[in-house]
């Protein structure tokens, strides 16, 4: 009887659903000292949470796109000063290659609104909430690199069509269960409001291609059920520890109810 139960147990384990991200390895220095991102820290930080766009490979280095759309650089009229400034900025970028990607994202534009087309019918979201990876950010005043504790979120285009990803998709959204409803929660309480533009910018995600993001851990507290949203697509539920002070701050500002 015991032998039968053991065989049944092994069979059930082998029948567990294999995901597209099971064999993906994210590489980074294992001796790095990582900290929890403090509330509203990202207000003074440069950098996105986007690690990769493209075909699936066995291994990826954990380095980030600093910008989805690079800012316009304005140099002084004095040629010598502008040349010196550019040389200084280039040296910083060279020193930060292990943290940020140097390649640019191909940006396209359209007049059509397409935000609702990202859903669970064409996207699959896999969350590895138990795998700690670094989230790199650059402090805008000193160019210092900050290293936060985060976990990977891998999103795959499961459709046969090319999907348009809005350029404001710099991160994924974390939703937690609060008062029996899932509510959006963030480690900050500010909002950037943009003006209405005639054209919408985006980049493409081809069939079977993936996006790799990181989502910062919150300071530890009570365990809550959570899920990741991207557009209207949702991940499976998982558990995450969230400091209740963050919940209270967002309750106070009206971000969640």
From TrEMBL:
Highest taxon, organism lineage: Bacteria
Protein name per Swiss-Prot or TrEMBL: Lipoprotein
Phylogenetic classification of the source organism: Bacteria, Pseudomonadati, Bacteroidota, Flavobacteriia, Flavobacteriales
């Amino acid at each position: 009887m015991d032998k039968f139960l053991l065989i049944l147990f092994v069979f059930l384990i082998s029948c567990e659903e294999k995901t597209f991200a099971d064999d993906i390895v994210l590489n980074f220095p294992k001796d790095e000292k990582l900290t929890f991102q403090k509330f509203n820290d990202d207000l003074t930080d440069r950098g996105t949470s986007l690690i990769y766009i493209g075909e699936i490979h066995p291994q990826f280095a954990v380095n980030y796109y600093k910008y989805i759309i690079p800012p316009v650089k304005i140099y002084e009229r004095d040629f010598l000063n502008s040349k010196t400034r550019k040389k200084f900025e280039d040296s910083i970028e060279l020193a930060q290659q292990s943290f940020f990607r140097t390649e640019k994202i191909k940006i396209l534009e359209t007049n059509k609104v397409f935000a609702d087309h990202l859903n669970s019918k064409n996207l699959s979201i896999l969350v590895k909430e138990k795998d700690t990876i670094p989230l790199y950010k650059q402090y805008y005043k000193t160019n210092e690199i900050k290293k936060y504790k985060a976990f990977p979120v891998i999103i795959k285009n499961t459709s046969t069509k090319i999907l348009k990803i809005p350029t404001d998709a710099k991160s994924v959204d974390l939703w937690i269960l609060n008062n029996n409803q899932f509510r959006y929660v963030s480690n900050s309480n500010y909002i950037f409001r943009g003006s209405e533009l005639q054209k919408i910018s985006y980049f493409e995600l081809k069939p079977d291609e993936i996006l790799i993001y990181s989502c910062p851990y919150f300071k530890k507290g009570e365990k809550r059920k959570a899920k990741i949203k991207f557009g209207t697509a949702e991940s499976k539920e998982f558990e995450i520890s969230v400091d209740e002070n963050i919940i209270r701050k967002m309750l106070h500002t009206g971000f969640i109810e």
